[in-house]
Amino acid sequence: MATKVWYCANCGYEVNSRGRCHNCGERLVASALPELESGPDDDEVGYRLDMWDDPTRARLIETLINAGVRHRFEEEELVILAVDEAEVDQLVARVTGAVADSRYEGYDDSDEEEGEETADLEGEEGAAVARQLYDAAKRLRDDPTDMLADAALSEASVAVFALDYIPGMDDDHLAAVGRVTRRLLGALGADEALEDDIRHQAEVLCRLVAPSAGEAQEAEEEERALARLELGAAEKGRVVALPQSDVTPGGEMGAADLSATDGEGTEVSDEISVVEVAEADGAGPASGSLDDGPDEDQLDQTGLVDLGAGQLDADALEDEAGAVELDDETSDIEPGASVAGARQFEEDEFHDEAAEEEEEDEEGTGELVYELAEWLPEQRVELSMLLESAGIAYNWDGSDLTVAEEHEDEVDGLFEQVHGPEEMDDEAQYHSIEELFRAVDRLANDPGDDERRRALLETVGVVEVPTPVGVDDGYWWRVRSQGHALVAAIEHGSRNDEVSREAALLAEMLHEMV
User: Fold this and answer.
1) What letter would DSSP give residue 460?
2) pTM, full prediction
3) What pLDDT does residue 134 have?
């Protein structure tokens, strides 16, 4: 027999009886759905919500009810049918602010507004955490022995690992922040002082977090990067300039797309204007800028466009049959083709010539472009820092790095100094997941063992990498969240039984992958 449930819209829990909330005193709300009855484990999926705050849990309950998704709670675990997993992943993402739309039936405008308000609040929380993390990292960069900054970093790291969204960061960027934060915590907790490593990791973390911490913090890091570059260039007797591109020190995490420029830095449009087409048609040179199209006041009801020396009568471009015969001995276009066809042919020919000229120009720019989209965000930051210390001017256009051609050999050498692997292939990633599974499984059986805890903290970083091939994004998001929950339990000093429970849940999830 189906069980009716009531829930608190403020405190985020469900019970099997009506009444008032024991916590806030508000009257419980009757759910429109009966409680999901227990069934075979293979037919169900569980979500751990113990790290969620009460309002977010309450929003999730109402969202599930509005979407008609039957469910039940087993202590801190939300249980749903496996067939609803994909939909619930989307609903969870919406509730937590990862997405904000109204694609789901049952939502009205008030639901959408509430979702936007939730996203705004979580965005503010994420920005505050970013500032807290930046401030702690900055203090450790200046003084690796600052014990207060050490404690502040530990506090901020707990908040970071519990978040799935920080404004200005995509998933890869947020994962990079998690990895570098763990490296910094590891350096701080080492038996021997690792001041150089602490400074280095703190510097990388500052650069990663600054754009989300605020405009002042981002500007400070850019000024610091420029100062390092200028100092390095002065020591090498170099000029801080590139043959054609702008120099963007500190801009590796989101450099704006640059317009194409000529040798003197003047922007050049790659669009074909009406003027250029007219010249290609043999109408002679035209007055005005190459980028200017015809003004509205140049057009009259006769269809004439004022092009200076040449005027084209738009109504007379084609004859009564809609085509103008061309001499096939002087043109590659077949007889009977229209002027529009001739124009298209000449435009294509013009584009081909322009492409050839552009290719020739690129060969002589004196610049090299490295496509580093496969690099991790923190690796691009480290490379920027190495380039600055070497006094080598650079430009970031997204993940494409541009340097002067004369520095090619030196830049290739700097690539080898970047910390960590340049990429993790599928085999290596799954090997790391297997290592994490073994570490988690051992920890679940003996949660109080310090060695097993250290092994877990050393391997759990794999959950921060992008979704493995063949794994659902929503499922990997849950693995990452559970990894955060386990780390938080260890770092908060939770009881052994709580650590064992979190480890067992993560082990069960990883078991599906290994």
Assistant:
1) G
2) 0.47
3) 94
